[in-house]
Write a structure and sequence with these properties.
Two copies of one chain form a homodimer. By secondary structure, chain A is mostly helical. Chain A folds into two domains: 49 residues, Arc Repressor Mutant, subunit A, CATH 1.10.10; 135 residues, Tetracycline Repressor, domain 2 (Orthogonal Bundle). Chain A contains twelve helices and no strands. In chain A, helix 1 packs antiparallel against helix 2, helix 1 packs across helix 7 and helix 10 runs antiparallel to helix 12. The longest helix of chain A is centred in the N-terminal third of the chain and has 25 residues. Chain A is globular. Chain A starts with a helix and ends with a helix. Chains A and B meet through helix 1, helix 7, helix 8, helix 9 and helix 10 of A and helix 1, helix 7, helix 8, helix 9 and helix 10 of B. Chain A binds a DNA duplex through helix 1 and helix 3.
Chain lengths: 202, 202
DNA sequence: GTCTATATGTTGATAGAC
DNA sequence: GTCTATCAACATATAGAC
């Protein structure tokens, strides 16, 4: 079944492009079909409804940017390495797809129950298990003098904010700071090392 | 004309609540009318179209979070004060309305031409005039030893990111870190002084 | 200024031939 | 699996009475 995968893949690719930009309400099924180079009816052959197609796209986007960092935070590496790895991960991922975070956060703002429910269902993200272990590691490394005495919650928030937010602001930053795509890219690249240094060398 | 202002105000209030959450495409005029406690026809009495109503709401939101900081950056104060003022401004503004940034950034992602055009039109935001003067001030204060030698572009990006991003992540952070509204609020309050210290004491 | 009723155009979804 | 043609529902917008 090469044809089948081909068509389904083309639909998903088109749906991503349009949903990322316009969201659930702003996207039109006809538009997606045209972009995919197929017929409107085909969409409903592979995906029962617009909502289901959207959820498929959302789920992929969500899993692309959230569980990865949870798993890093849950790993056995020292904090310093975790931070470097996460900044690196976001800069790589979002350089290839800057629209991702606004898309995901907008869906969550639209319907938190629905699009954040996938959160709690996931075992490894249970807040207690997850944050508890991490807090402990922080305390220990701080006591050992490996880390400056910082509030772990702020550190995590800062890390994600410093890594992700610039991509959300990309269109505005390009205008405000008079950058083209290349100089924006260079600026983001320089943050790979800047962010960890900035967070830890106090 | 108290009645008139009342109705128009009620419409705008309702429209804000619903557009903030659902965006242009996801919102329904009927929903806004109901929320405002008036009739669907009344919406078109005060606002010619859904698009025009949305643009009104967008413009207000946009001006609430962007020009204020531009004017601070353009002022004559020392960098240190500017930074404190901007962090303070965002934490106050977004504590009252955490949905604002996702709403604005989503509209821009939806149609950059349309919703970022208001940018270039504004005189004071002309990138050259604006960033040029600011860069100069940075250089001078760094030479005078008042500031650590940082790239001004990163500093501005970091400042805004650290101030704004946590509010965009609010629903997710509350779950991940097991916070209720009150402890989230406390955490944000503590950032008023944390952010400037973090940015400047290197 | 405010309402009810209605026109007009889209849109998501399906039926059914190939 | 893929298409054309079509339906039924809905949403924006307007007409017109009060």
């Amino acid at each position: 079944m090469p044809k089948e995968l081909d068509a389904k893949e083309k639909i998903l690719e088109a749906a991503k492009g349009i949903f990322y930009k316009k969201g659930l309400g702003g996207a039109r099924m006809a538009e997606i079909a045209e972009e995919a180079g197929i017929n409107k009816a085909m969409l409903h052959y592979y995906f029962s409804s617009k909502e289901q197609l959207f959820e498929t796209v959302f789920e992929e986007a969500f899993h692309k940017i959230i569980p990865s960092i949870i798993s890093v935070l849950n790993s056995e590496k020292p904090i310093r390495e975790k931070i470097e790895e996460i900044a690196d991960f976001y800069i790589t991922t979002l350089s290839a797809n800057p629209q991702l975070p606004v898309f995901v956060l907008n869906a969550i703002q639209y319907d938190p129950e629905r699009f954040l429910g996938k959160f709690m269902k996931n075992k490894q993200m249970s807040p207690q298990a997850f944050m508890g272990k991490l807090m402990q590691q922080f305390q220990q490394e701080i006591q050992e003098g490996k880390l400056p005495p910082v509030d772990p919650r702020h550190l995590i928030i800062n890390l994600i904010g410093l890594s992700v937010f610039p991509f959300m602001m990309k269109p505005m930053l390009k205008i405000m700071m008079n950058m083209d795509d290349e100089s924006f890219h260079d600026l983001m690249e320089s943050r790979r090392e800047l962010i960890p240094r900035f967070l830890l060398d106090t």
